[in-house]
Structures are given as C-alpha cells and as structure tokens.
Amino acid sequence: NELKAAFDDYKNKYALQVDLVKTLEEVEARLEGVIKERDLLLEQVKARDEQIAGLEKKLRTVEATAITEEEKKIDPDGAYAG
Fold it and tell me: Among 53, 30, 73, which Cα is nearest to 45's?
C-alpha cells in the first residue's frame, strides 16, 4: 500500500513536470514572436527617426529661404545685409 502511494506520487509529479515542460515550450514560442515583433518595431522607430531628422533639416532650409526672401522684400538693395 505504501509502495502504491509512492508510485502515485511519482506519477503525479511526472505529469506535473510534463505539463510544465509543455507550458515552458509554449511560452518560449510566444516570447520568440514577441521578440521578432519588438525588433520589427525598433526598425520602424529607427526609420521614423531618420525621416524626422530629414524633415527637420528640410524645414530649417525652407525657413532660411523664407527669411531671405522676406529680407529681399523689405530691403531690396541689400543695404542692411550682413
């Protein structure tokens, strides 16, 4: 009777271990998917940052051009130009 109880305990622990291994494998698979998604999002962020930097540079150029054109309207002879 004691032997049967020990065997039943072993079976229960083994079943629990099998279940834990299965759960761990599922979690690892989900984690792999999340990591891939994160990497893809990081690439998108990098691309957006590059776009923003390009647009900011373009904006500075446009602002400088607009200021120059405004100065020409106000001071067509360039008397006050540095």
Answer: 53
